[in-house]
Amino acid sequence: MSKNLSGAPVSPPPPLSLSGPRFGVDAPGFVALTGAAGTASCLAAARWRRGRIPAALAGSVLLASTGVYLHTTLRGKLRFWAGELDRIGLKGDEELLDLGCGRGAVLVEAARRLPAGRAHGVDLWSGADQSGNRPEATLANAAAAGVADRVEVHTADMTELPFQDASFDVVTSAMAIHNIPAREARRRAVEEAMRVLRPGGRLLIADIWWAARDYAAHLGQGTLRPLGVGYWYGGPWLGVTLLHVVKEH
Ligand SMILES: C[S@@+](CC[C@H](N)C(=O)[O-])C[C@H]1O[C@@H](n2cnc3c(N)ncnc32)[C@H](O)[C@@H]1O
């Protein structure tokens, strides 16, 4: 499938312009609720005589958590994926699949490093999971980043991928698989990711820590790396861990 995997790694592209693609906000209802609850608690603390301190404390924690969440979804995850895609040393001609691509935060960064390859995104376009989630938005972001010719989007369920075995050199997924409600179905999505990966290919899944641990336990292989405050959805309780698997030959 790859044409030039023995070549030198592709050079990292310059950072995306802030006026370029717009990748939306993950789980917008959740962060809106946290922000509203934080604001209400602070207002209550300003008015109440009794319970002022607990209300102020709760409000401060909720507002700080909202800020951390917004930083992650608007900047932190983009910074992480740009660095990680550089770190794995793509040659530039790989076929890459992004599961639950949404508006293309990972897909577009990957495509920028694939001048002779292709980045495929799969999604069911849930607006609850990401604001403005539509295939047209993803393709518009690819065009804004100048990589429309290397990006394809597919409407499909990641528990049943419409691709043949060993079709991809790299499979990525960012904060997507945990959205599948049933554990068995989440595990099926991870099995599907391994099925479509070629031997020697890499699987990179960034997901909430408890979910990533379960995928690693299910596969019985791979390394786990907590990604720190820059990829916390509000706090360590929703911190993201990276599972990295290299498929055996
Ligand atoms: C929180 S968003 C993350 C999007 C993108 N990976 C990112 O980091 O910006 C989760 C994505 O997973 C998608 N998704 C959820 N369940 C899915 C499924 N069973 N198959 C395909 N996509 C799914 C949602 O539609 C949404 O786009």
Helices and strands in order, then pairings?
Layout: H1 28-47, H2 52-87, E1 95-99, H3 105-111, E2 118-123, H4 135-144, E3 151-155, E4 168-174, H5 183-196, E5 197-208, H6 209-219, E6 223-226, E7 240-246
Parallel strand pairs: 1-2, 1-4, 2-3, 4-5
Antiparallel strand pairs: 5-7, 6-7
Helix pairs in contact: 1-2, 2-3, 5-6
Bound molecules: S-adenosylmethionine (SAM).
Walk me through this protein's architecture.
The protein is α/β, with parallel strands linked by helices. The protein folds into 2 domains: 42 residues; 174 residues, 3-Layer(aba) Sandwich (Rossmann fold). Helices cover 39% and strands 18% of the residues. It is built from 6 helices and 7 strands. A 7-stranded mixed β-sheet has the order 3-2-1-4-5-7-6. Strand 1, helix 3 and strand 2 form a beta-alpha-beta unit. Helix 1 runs antiparallel to helix 2, helix 2 runs parallel beside helix 3 and helix 5 crosses helix 6. Bound molecules: S-adenosylmethionine. S-adenosylmethionine (SAM) binds next to helix 3 and strand 2.
User: What is CATH's topology name of the largest domain?
Assistant: Rossmann fold
Mean pLDDT: 95
CATH architecture of the largest domain: 3-Layer(aba) Sandwich
The molecules bound to the chains, other than polymers, are: S-adenosylmethionine
Largest sheet: 7 strands, mixed
Distance between the termini: 15 Å
Q: Using the alpha-carbon principal axes, give the shape.
A: globular
Low-confidence stretches: 1-6
For the record, the count of structural domains works out to 2
The spatial strand order of the largest sheet comes to 3-2-1-4-5-7-6
SSE class: alpha/beta
What is the radius of gyration computed over CA atoms, rounded to a whole number of angstroms? 19 Å
What is the CATH class name of the largest domain?
Alpha Beta
CATH homologous superfamily caption of the largest domain: Vaccinia Virus protein VP39
